[in-house]
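Action item from last week, closing it out:
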Amino acid sequence: MSDAVTLWIVKATFVLLIAASALTWAIVIVKTLQNFRLSRQTQSFYRSFEKTNGLPRSEELAKYAGPVARLAQAGLDSWQTSGKDSDGSTVELPIRRDLLERRLIQQLQREKKGVEIGLPVLASIGSTSPFVGLFGTVLGIIHALQRIGGSGSASLEVVAGPIGEALEATAVGIAVAVPALIAYNFFLRRLKTLVGDLEDFSNTFIGHAVRSFIRVAPETERRSDPSLAIGQEASA
């Protein structure tokens, strides 16, 4: 490999690391704003939902934004559309509950995918940047040795400068990787917390839906459907 090509690759390595650093901080800023917005939307919705005894209405849900509000809207739509069968008969509670759970899980996965955007990029930058820096260091040392060989001298003054410049690539790679890994772990923890909150809300929503079904179910359905009796005892 010629000296010019080696030097060009080393410079390209520095450019790549600087671009990765800029991308890391851009993602950090965007994810921080996103988490702040989601936190405000979630708290606002929870304060309203705690005052509701039964299921919220679509008009009320339309006033809120955020993953929890969308999850509630998806659950409400599923619960309302599964109330009647194609022949007009009332659908039994176990079937409606199963359909509701499936719909909530689907919506939860959609919300999770939307929030975790950018995390794979942070993980990739954090794991590969040190190796990119090491690659630049190796080529930098090769370039330094070629310069030393061309000078015909192996004194400390001649060796220290080029070798020190080559080691800068490893230092830059580590400097890029550390913030990326810290940000990845932080936002991953926030994602797990959000998913846990959504799962808790899903269980609460299902409980409200079951209680609303028991309250409006005719007495004959309660006697004929054992699940209603069990649900009635649990709600009591």
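Closing note: The chain is about 85% helix and 0% strand.
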